[in-house]
């Protein structure tokens, strides 16, 4: 359903570039992160020494390819998430937009994907440094003694490519076709 809605929005605007987003969370939602078109943020729950719960929020770059709009301007608090296991897909749906123009010609345009997967990430500070400074005197689930966060995440990756020269015009017919 989400793929269809995203595809309809993208089809309605032929000049719109592609989109690509990855949303990930731990099973208990103690760490939630999103990168790509939807924004680049991570939220990490913690408990301080006074036993008060809190949430640390920071810019995130999910490697290897998400967070392309993150820059050095995001500050010293940027967190990088690096995969440390192979991605195991729990579901995959890929489609291609087939366009039949009103003049009888046709082409294949945008590609859409909607994938769910499970994998482990290590979260670290900028340039591979530990997160000790960000979480000084705080307890965070998954924090190693060296100050890195290691956890298993469920991820949802979705997006639509740019049209690739195959645009939808007024009066054209479109059909989303499943691709392997």
How would you explain this protein's 3D organization?
The protein is mostly beta strands and 180 residues long. The protein has one domain (2-179). It is 6% helix and 50% strand. It is built from one helix and ten strands. A seven-stranded mixed beta barrel has the order 1-2-3-4-5-7-9. A hairpin with a 4-residue loop joins strand 3 (41-48) and strand 4 (53-62). The longest helix has 10 residues, at 2-11. The protein is elongated and about 70 Å long. The two termini are 18 Å apart.
Structural class by SSE content: mainly beta
Total number of beta strands: 10
**How far apart lie the N and C ends?**
18 Å
Which radius of gyration do the C-alpha atoms yield?
20 Å
Helix content: under 10%
Number of helices: 1
Number of domains: 1
Low-confidence stretches: 1-15
Question: What topology, given as strand order, has the largest sheet?
Answer: 1-2-3-4-5-7-9
| CA-based shape | elongated
What string, H for helix and E for strand, traces the elements in order? Answer: HEEEEEEEEEE
Oligomer: single chain
Mean pLDDT: 86
Beta content comes to over 45%
How would you characterize the largest beta sheet? 7 strands, mixed, barrel
């Amino acid at each position: 359903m989400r793929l269809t809605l995203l595809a309809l929005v993208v089809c309605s605007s032929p000049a719109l570039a592609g989109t690509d987003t990855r949303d990930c969370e731990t099973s208990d939602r103690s760490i939630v992160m999103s990168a790509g078109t939807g924004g680049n943020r991570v939220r990490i729950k913690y408990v301080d020494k006074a036993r008060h719960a809190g949430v640390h929020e920071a810019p995130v770059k999910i490697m290897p390819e998400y967070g392309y709009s993150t820059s050095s301007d995001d500050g010293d608090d940027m967190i990088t998430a690096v995969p440390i296991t192979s991605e195991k897909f729990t579901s995959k749906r890929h489609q291609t937009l087939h366009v039949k123009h009103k003049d009888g010609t046709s082409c294949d345009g945008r590609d859409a994907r909607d994938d769910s997967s499970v994998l482990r990430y290590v979260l670290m500070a900028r340039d591979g440094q530990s997160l000790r400074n960000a979480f000084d005197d705080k307890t965070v689930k998954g924090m190693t003694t060296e100050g890195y966060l290691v956890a298993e995440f469920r991820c949802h990756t979705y997006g639509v490519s740019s049209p690739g020269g195959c645009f939808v015009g007024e009066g054209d017919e479109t059909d989303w076709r499943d691709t392997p």
